[in-house]
Design a protein that fits this description.
By secondary structure, the chain is mainly β. The chain is built from seven helices and 51 strands. The strands form six sheets. The chain has a 36-stranded mixed β-sheet that branches. It has a five-stranded mixed β-sheet with strand order 4-9-10-7-8. The chain has a four-stranded antiparallel β-sheet with strand order 17-18-21-22, with no helix packed on it. It starts with 7 loop residues before the first helix and ends with a strand.
Length: about 1000
């Protein structure tokens, strides 16, 4: 089925297609404006290519007569000739009088140049020097851009949202090439890329036909430096120490870390061969004080107040080790041929120590007394008969990421180039997620605890127990609540181990031709094709852990010991949880327990067995476009018109499983689906006044759904009671029901209108105001269903049951799975001011600011609930960032504050499965100060001190749109850095 054939879901969604009159008017008006501007018959032809910046957004933004195609996506980073508009006269000067822009201002100037010279709407972060982006990480830098926000994970900026749409709606490229990820889905984890390796990071917010693998919200393109663009040899080394403001919370952790890197760039063979090499090593610690509420029992009234259902306070210590390297070889033996080879390797290993207690309270059976109620909340309660679970957990993640790319540009004639680009991106990840439990006895046995909980001002509850949780004569290795169950009978689950592994592989080959026209406003043309094959393999293993001894398979019935003493060799100390009222808990070595105290039994529950899957996507993309460069009514006009045709073939293999009378039945499953999309686009940039531009974009874009939503695997339930001779309606009385993925999911699609007004100042800096509207279709509803033939599981039934199911056609069942039934819109506005203060007063020379803000609204509805709009994950209605800096004569200082209003955050839920909760608004303050010696024996030596999260802002989530119902409260503390850099 093509995109032009309406499905039943599309027809059912017809009422939702209606958009407001003002939005529709804006859509029509903007489209008409672009078309009219491009087709005006009075257009004058551009005659002097030597004085006109190249209008091709897929070529470098430099002044050249013939467009080159040395990069597969827009890359306007090669400096154009310096003009008064590019460089502020406030920059430092050499003794010869040459203007030199360094540090913070160099990065801002380069970013402004990229924005001004591109016909696309783009925002960029540029390195202040070789190997030095302006912040601690790539995500930190991007979060300062207008319309870009970051969600913190483990205290680090990680999950990016662009214009209100979360990481599932954007794509990340490396040197213009789509990348795989070490994460569970498509969203790139920016920790896998050392920031020292990148010269520029561009965020494209409008689309172009040559921008293959673009996202709906935007496209992030990480750019390594090109050695032939460097004026001279570079050899730079840097080292940095780190300290977390919270002392180490676990005895087997540290709050100190480091970072070291080296970069070498040189040119050979009369500047026709360039080499760039980089290496980086990092050890990053973090200390997290965490509180998690299970939820709240009750109705929120005076008679039935909200009562804390349970809580899991714990302390977490993380240590991220990462080392990596990059290499670029660039060869340009003549003006006819240009070849560039890039390689990146990154290895990281993250270790987490987590220790705390789970308190089953209002959701369980403890007796309540001494209840104090205020505004429908039990602000204080005493629980008697509590049997808590003491946790000592250990998580380790190991991941590797490879990326290779080879680009070749051949000049076929004076006006035609052939470009061929091949790339390979590969990532692997393995997790070792170990949980260990101790308590006073199995299944509620042993002495009871009496716990007093009282609500604190930050929404968390202070928890004061009676028992001594460090007493090894009372606490044992056991299953304190008797929760262990293998699907058919009880097991002694005194621990649990998850060992998932992931492999993500992407191969791509792209070729295109581009050339120029003479004496025409249509400056040039480009046509190309891209083939990519992506395969994501997800494999899961999990195990029950029980005390060593008699019995088999950890089952209670077989005689497995229900508890065992804590070995003294496993005790490494005590940990206070006094920030929440718990005096102390035992600090045990979970790896010692795993290796010496536990038996393991494979988890063969159907829900565990069906998680393994492979998703494969073969994507064929063809595109063509023309580029416009000329004058319209005396105004400079640049732009492009083009289209992409994308044919996709997706396939998933896995298995479906069920359990009947204690017998697990597994059957292989495979499904494939194909579809075609046509995505037109048009861009236009008009210089209405000197250095003042209006940029317009109209396009259709798409982004593929989450990979775990495309899986074929299913966990099946079989209702034996419905296998009766008089049942002829499987829809009303189903025998088979299931939950799983949907291989036939199509991409999210968006029709986009983008507009930007940009005024640049001759003294440096600019002001920009942008508006955007996105009409979203084929939005994935995760809670939908479709029919499926379960005949492959008939072997789980008796012969008599199989006969009834076959005769009555009851093998068709219902699968709860995602489907493309949603649609809606996103509309917003963003503004930026980049201003050197010397424009205001000469006395403020060296001072400046960079301020951005964004407002976004959205409305998404599903066919299953057409009257209720959902909240987009990652969308904050209000976001803002402000930076004030000073830089002069080698000295620099900067303060940055960023804010985002409340948003729907993706967090880890039960069994580490992703879930969504509302996160409170937050404001983060960062600062840095440094000095680079300008002369003498220490010339080119720099020292830099940085501080992150000076506001010590916690990450807080709540449920049911009620800020009082706090679920997560995570305090990460402040981070301090001190680093040195030397350039030889």
């Amino acid at each position: 089925m093509t995109d032009f054939e309406p499905s039943r879901a599309d027809r059912a969604c017809a009422p939702l297609r209606r958009i407001s009159m003002s939005a529709r008017l804006g859509l029509y008006t903007s489209t008409a404006a672009i078309t009219a501007a491009l087709l005006l018959p009075s257009a004058a032809y551009a005659q002097d290519a030597a004085t006109t910046a190249n209008a091709n957004p897929t070529a470098k933004a430099q002044v050249e007569a013939t467009p080159t195609q040395a990069d597969p996506t827009p890359q306007p980073t090669t400096p154009a000739p310096v003009t008064a508009a590019d460089v502020a006269p406030t920059a430092d000067t050499t003794p010869d009088g040459d203007i030199v822009v360094t540090g913070i201002r160099a990065g801002l100037d380069s970013s402004a140049k990229i924005k001004r010279q591109s016909v696309l709407i783009v925002d960029s972060v540029s390195a202040e020097d070789v190997g030095k982006l302006p912040d601690v990480s790539i995500a930190d830098s991007l979060a300062r851009l207008p319309g870009v926000t970051a969600q913190r994970l483990e205290g680090r900026d990680q999950r990016l949202s662009i214009r209100g749409l979360g990481p599932d709606f954007s794509t990340t490229l490396l040197n213009g090439r789509e990348q795989v990820t070490v994460g569970d889905n498509r969203g790139v984890e920016y920790d896998q890329y050392p920031s020292e390796f990148f010269k520029t990071v561009n965020v494209y917010k409008s689309a172009d036909a040559s921008l293959v693998a673009a996202g709906i919200s935007g496209t992030v393109d990480l750019r390594m430096l090109r050695p032939l663009d460097q004026a001279k040899r570079v050899l730079a080394v840097s080292a940095r120490g780190q300290m977390n403001g919270i002392k180490n919370l676990n005895p087997d952790s540290s709050r100190y870390g480091y970072r070291a890197s080296a970069t070498y760039v040189d040119k050979f063979a009369n500047d026709t061969l360039g080499i760039a090499l980089g290496a980086s090593a990092t050890l990053t610690p973090s200390q997290d004080e965490r509180y998690n509420a299970w939820g709240y029992a009750g109705a929120g009234t005076a008679a039935s107040p909200f009562v804390l259902g349970g809580a899991k306070p714990y302390v977490q210590s993380n240590e991220l080790k990462r080392y990596g390297g990059v290499a670029t070889i660039e060869w340009r033996p003549s003006e006819v041929f240009h070849s560039t080879f890039d390689a990146l390797y990154s290895h990281f290993e993250e270790t987490q120590h987590l220790r705390g207690i789970e308190f089953p309270l209002g959701f369980s059976s403890p007796t309540q007394s001494g209840v104090t109620v205020a505004n429908g909340f039990a602000t204080a309660t005493t629980f008697s008969g509590v049997h808590a679970i003491q946790r000592n957990d250990y998580n380790q993640r190991k991941a590797e990421n490879f990326s290779l790319g080879w680009n070749n540009d051949l000049k076929l004639s004076d006006k035609i180039h052939l470009n061929v680009d091949a790339s390979w991106s590969h990532a692997t990840r393995t997790d070792f997620l170990l949980e260990t439990y101790t308590g006073v006895g199995y299944g509620g046995a042993g002495p009871d605890d009496t716990v007093r909980v009282s609500q604190q001002g930050n929404g968390t509850y202070k928890i004061v127990p009676t028992l001594d949780y460090t007493n090894t004569s009372v606490f044992k290795l056991t299953d304190p609540q008797g929760w262990g169950y293998n699907g058919t009978q009880a097991v002694v689950q005194s621990g649990f181990l998850n060992r998932p592994s992931f492999k993500d592989d992407l191969k791509s080959l792209r070729a295109n031709l581009n050339g120029e026209f003479d004496n025409s406003i249509i400056k040039s043309w480009e046509a190309g094709a891209n083939y990519s094959r992506r395969e994501k393999t997800s494999a899961y293993q999990s195990f029950f852990l029980c005390p060593k001894g008699a019995g088999s398979n950890c089952t209670v019935a077989s005689g497995t010991p229900t508890s065992a003493p804590i070995p003294t060799q496993a005790v490494i100390g005590k940990i206070p949880l006094d920030y929440l009222g718990v005096p102390a808990v035992l600090a045990l070595d979970p790896l010692y327990l795993y290796n010496n105290s536990y038996n393991t039994f494979f988890d063969n529950r159907p829900s565990s067995l069906v998680r393994d899957n492979v998703v494969t996507e073969n994507v064929y993309t063809g595109y063509a476009k023309i580029n416009i460069d000329g004058d319209v009514g005396g105004k400079a006009l640049k732009g492009s018109i083009g289209t992409q045709v994308i044919h996709s073939e997706q396939r998933s293999t896995g298995q479906i499983a069920s359990v009947v009378n204690g017998v697990v039945t597994i059957a292989p499953a495979s499904q494939k689906y194909s579809y075609t999309n046509v995505l037109p686009s048009a861009t236009m940039a008009v210089e209405l006044v000197p250095l003042g531009y209006v940029k317009l974009g109209a396009s259709q874009t798409m982004v593929r759904p989450r990979l775990d939503q495309e899986r074929v695997t299913q966990d099946v339930a079989i209702n034996i009671a419905n296998i009766v001779p008089n049942n002829f309606n499987p829809g009303l009385n189903p025998v088979f029901t299931s939950s799983g993925g949907n291989v036939a999911l199509r991409p999210y699609k968006s029709t986009n209108i983008d507009m930007s007004f940009e005024q640049y100042f001759r003294g440096g800096g600019y002001v920009a105001l942008s508006g955007y509207y996105k009409h979203l279709t084929d939005f994935v509803d995760p809670n939908n269903s479709y029919a499926y033939d379960f005949s492959s599981l008939l072997g789980a039934l008796s012969p008599a049951q199989r006969a009834i199911v076959t005769a009555n056609r009851l093998a068709i069942g219902n699968v709860s799975a995602p489907a493309n039934t949603g649609r809606g819109s996103v509309i917003g506005v963003e503004g930026t001011i980049s201003l050197p203060f010397k424009m205001v007063s000469e006395a403020l020379d060296g001072f400046g600011m960079f301020v951005s803000g964004n407002y976004t609204e959205s409305e998404i509805k599903f066919v299953s609930n057409p009257t209720q709009a959902i909240t987009l994950p990652g969308l904050s209605k209000w976001t803002g960032s402000g930076t004030v800096y000073f830089e002069k004569h080698g000295f620099q200082a900067r303060v940055n504050y960023r804010y985002r209003s409340s948003f729907l955050a993706e967090v880890a839920g039960l069994s580490a499965n992703p879930t969504y909760r509302t996160a409170r608004s937050e404001g983060i303050l960062d600062a840095q100060i440094g000095y680079e010696f300008q002369s003498g024996p220490l010339k080119n030596f720099a020292i830099l001190a940085q501080a992150k999260n000076l506001t010590d802002r916690p990450f807080v989530t709540y449920q049911n749109d009620d800020p009082r119902q706090v679920i997560d409260y995570q305090r990460y503390g402040r981070d301090y850095y001190l680093g040195i850099t030397y350039k030889f």
